[in-house]
Amino acid sequence: MIDSTLNMGLPRFRDNEIVIQELGDEILVYDLKTNKAHSLNPTAAFIWKNCNGNTSVEDLAAMVEAKLKLKCNQDLVNLALADLSKINLIRPKIAKSSSISRRNLLTHYGAAAIAIPVIASLVAPTAAQVASCLAMGQMCTLGSECCSMVCIESFCA
């Protein structure tokens, strides 16, 4: 029997209330709870997929190093974990260390900056928000009412 306390605190990816679409080495994750979409670049995607609750930061760094064929330190993995934690894609919550910065990693990795984990997020509008704008030619009072965001002489442009 495996002692469950051994893996306490090790990162584990969230697999409930999300929709995952793999796009080559990248992953698009749609969070059904927050209506946010997160695009994970290959490094962030690889780290996220390997957060199984049994893999340490040191092991993740070694795995990234083997996959990307470049020297990887734990700061790179910790940055990815902090970013993934911030958007609730891994558990437990991991705070970003003040010593980790993208600038320091860019300096360290130089030309291999492609290895830096990047997560781009956006809020997806609800169906009501999408349907609530006025089409071109309809009467308006403010640009924000129009789908084009432009109201000219009381009509949506």
Describe this structure in words.
This protein is α+β, with helices and mostly antiparallel strands and 157 residues long. It contains five helices and eight strands. A four-stranded antiparallel β-sheet has the order 2-3-4-6. β2 and β3 form a beta hairpin. α1 packs across α3 and α2 crosses α3. The protein is elongated, with a radius of gyration of 21 Å. 20% of the residues are buried.
Summarize the structure.
This protein is α+β, with helices and mostly antiparallel strands and 157 residues long. It contains five helices and eight strands; from the N terminus they run E-E-E-E-H-H-H-E-H-E-H-E-E.
The total count of strands amounts to 8
What structural category arises from helix and sheet content? Answer: alpha+beta
> Ends: how far apart?
68 Å
Residue fraction in strands? 15-25%
Arrangement of strands in the largest sheet: 2-3-4-6
Task: Tell me, briefly, the overall form.
Answer: elongated
Determine the mean pLDDT.
Answer: 83
The low-confidence runs, each spanning 5 or more residues with pLDDT under 50, are 1-6
| SSE series | EEEEHHHEHEHEE
**What percentage of residues falls in helices of 4 or more residues?**
25-40%
Main sheet record: 4 strands, antiparallel
Number of helices: 5
Radius of gyration: 21 Å
